[in-house]
Amino acid sequence: MAKAIKSRQEAIEKLNKQTQRRKQEKLNRIQAEEDANNEYLARVEENKDEVIFEVEGSAFLPHQVRRMAGALVNLGRGFLSIEQLDQMIEGVGNGVASLSLPPQVLCLLEVKYANFPPKVGEKIGN
């Protein structure tokens, strides 16, 4: 009986390690991926007891960043599998929905505009 319990605990630990490894691999892929036009970048960083999710892009759909961050929260809490996250990213599958985080938990740090501010003497507009 004790051997069965020990082997069950070992199996659970191995599964947990494998799940954590797969989650980290997926997060690493998210960090490394950038579109061909270099207009979009996402990065996830763990810092002690917080997770920092940075996203940069030329445009976003309404609530897009809130849903992206919510998907990462669900992934980390085990409510969303790597396969479901892949389906969400690819827009295929059985319509897996993600948590949309409230705006209070997100922070806009910077807005950048191309060629702004204009240089001294530079013509603005047409």
Set out the fold topology.
Blueprint: H1 2-32, E1 40-47, E2 50-57, H2 64-77, H3 82-90
Antiparallel strand pairs: 1-2
Question: Strands across the major sheet, in which order?
Answer: 1-2
Number of continuous helical runs: 3
> Alpha-carbon distance between the termini?
81 Å
| Spatial extent as radius of gyration | 20 Å
- The helix content is 40-55%
Task: Flag low-confidence runs.
Answer: 34-38
Which sheet architecture does the biggest sheet show?
2 strands, antiparallel
Secondary-structure element order, N to C: HEEHH
Which strand-content bin applies to the residues?
Answer: 5-15%
Kindly state the number of beta strands: 2
Mean pLDDT: 77
Backbone shape = elongated
Describe the structure.
Strand 1 and strand 2 form a beta hairpin. This protein has a two-stranded antiparallel ribbon. The chain has 126 residues and is α+β, with helices and mostly antiparallel strands.
Structure described in brief:
With 126 residues, the protein is an alpha+beta fold.
Features:
126 residues; alpha+beta; 3 helices; elongated
